[in-house]
Amino acid sequence: MSDRESGDDQPQGQSKYSQGGMDVGTSDFDSGQNQQGEQELATKMLQIQSKRFYLDVKQNRRGRFIKVAEIGADGRRSQIFLALSTAADFRDHLSSFSDFYASLGPPNPESMPEDGKLKSEMMIKENRRYYLDLKENSRGRFLRCAQVSQTITRGGPRSQIAIPAQGMIEFRDALTDLLDEFGTDDGGFKGELPEGRHMRVENKNFYFDIGQNNRGIYMRISEVLQVKSNFRTAITVPEKSWARFRDIFADYCDKMKDGSTSGATSGDKASSSGTDIGPGPK
C-alpha cells in the first residue's frame, strides 16, 4: 500500500492557481475576500505526490501570517491561515508527527483504528482552533490540519488541508525557511491604546472606547440615554475607517457653519454649556 494522501472531506472550489502556468504573485483568496492594503512578502511551492502546496507570507494592518493553499490533482483547492507564531507551533508539531510516523510499522488493515486516527494534537490561537490528526485509511497515511473559527457555531464549516505523511518533513523544512527569514512575531499594533473618552450632551452620555481583537483596532461609540432604563446603543468603527468618519463629520460641520453664521442653535448652546469631554467612568 502506498502512502498516498486521503481526499476525504476536502472542500471544493475554484482556484486562481490554475493547473497550468500558476501565477502565485497575483493570488488572493484570503477567506474569499480581498484584503485592502495586503502585501505578499514571500512564497514557496511544494510538490508532494499528486498535490501542490503554496506557502505565502502576507502582511496587512493586523500583522503577518502564512496562507497555506493545497491544490489537488483534480484541481480542488483548500487553504488554512496561520499567524507566524502559530506557524512556529505547527512546525514543531510537524517534527513530532514525523518522528511518530517514522516509528510506525507498515500499514496493517486489520489493526487500523476505527476512526483512522493514529495521533492527534490541537493548537489554539485567539479565536481559531487547529486540529492536527495523523490518519490512516485504505489509501495510506496523511496529516490533516483543520482550522475552525470559535466564532462559528458548532458544526459550521471548517478549512482544512491534508499533507501526505511522506511529505511532512519537506513541509516542515519549507515552513522553517520562511520563519527563519520573517521570524515568529505576528506584527500588528503593539503600542498602548488611547484612553477612553466621555462626553455628555443634554440627557445623553457618549462613550468612546478603543479596543483591539483578532480583526484589528476599533472604536466603540456608545450612546446612553439617561432615562429610567439607561437605554444604550453602540456602533463599532474599524480603525481603518476613522479618517473617513472624521472627514464626513468635518464636512457636515463646515456646511452647518456656513449655513448658520448668525449664531449657534439651541442645541449648540446646550452642547457648549453642558459638555464634559474627557476620560470618565461608565
TrEMBL record:
Transmembrane segments: none annotated. Residues 1-38, 258-282 are annotated as: Disordered. Residues 9-18, 28-38, 259-275 have a biased composition (Polar residues). The keyword DNA-binding applies. Keywords: DNA-binding. InterPro entries: PUR-bd_fam (IPR006628). GO terms for cellular component: nucleus. One of its GO terms (molecular function) is purine-rich negative regulatory element binding. Belongs to the PUR DNA-binding protein family. This is Transcriptional activator protein Pur-beta isoform X11. It comes from Frankliniella occidentalis (Western flower thrips). The gene is LOC113210761.
